[in-house]
Give the backbone structure.
Amino acid sequence: EHWEQFSSGTATWIAGDVNDAQVAFYPNVSTNYVDSLDNSADTNFALVSDGRSGDAMLISPFLDFTHHRSAVLDLDAFAIMYTSSEYTDYGGAKVKVRADMGEWVEVLDLSYNHNNGWEHEMVDLSFVAGLDRVQVAFGYKEGASTTYYGNGMAIDNVNIHAVPGLTTLTATGTAESVELAWSSGRSVSLDSDWVPLTHEEKMLLIEESASANEDIISDELSLVNRRGVVSLDNRPASTRRQGGDTFTDAVEITTPYYGSGTTVGYTHDYGPFDDDTDLVCGFAPSSSVGLASDVVYKLTLTDTAHVVIDLDGSLYDTALGVYDSTDTALVLANDDYNGLQSYLECNLPSGTYYIVVDGFSTSSGAYTIDVHEVIRPPDLL
């Protein structure tokens, strides 16, 4: 999954242990609260790398709670930043939540000294149940003054989930009573690790899914043929809200945008994505990436923006390329970020960009595309 983080200074969120926290939090020798972090079930946890060098914000990926009636945040938290003074800014450590890119809502204020180490927190987030694009933000703010006890924030064992419902409910009845038995499900923790596929794994996965993809492509072609839109002069365009054929007839979009379509029946106009001369982000994978039929979207940014382009959910081996307004300079490229799906994330200056949805080698098929901006929340703390 794709976690975002923002910093106002050199402080960032890192993974570390108690030894790292001893350096990052500047604890007082005689009252060293950081020592108590040893009671964590894990040796590693997330922490702010320097409690006296700026603000640090960690934001979760988008979570979908549209099909849930509950939402809960579980975590272990630690902070040191508070003294008895009420008149000096000693910083802050807070947790906020939002849905559908709306306003941030504070759900936890951790801005005090956790003398006994980890505090387990459980928060009811039912106000986001039934909503999409749910995010949780963990924010650390450096104070105007440092404290005697030290300064820092850490989190561990974060679990954002729906309340498990009942499963395998059974009843055993007699004339006098009914005995009920059941078990409950469990939610799955977020997986923030990404390990790219090796070439051998990629080829095996393509081979294993070949028949399924052939069925999908066959169905798409059958549908397109029935609608009489296979010819070069009569292809589906913006009416289906999928990409256009070339830069000239690219479908114009604004953020946030979510759409779907197919590359089946289109021609190969752009690629391969193997030239890194003008790359701003991503990497130019190889001469085998971007050789398939492709479609194009046009995105115009009026200001500098942190943009995410995600093809997760597509049904074939995708590839992504982004060109600038010159139509020739490849500025972003990706292949196989999430399994066989492509993903790009970059801070882009204002201007016009052409997003090319392509495939590995000659792969084509149905795709979904999500284009949105990641906006730093100014009121997080």
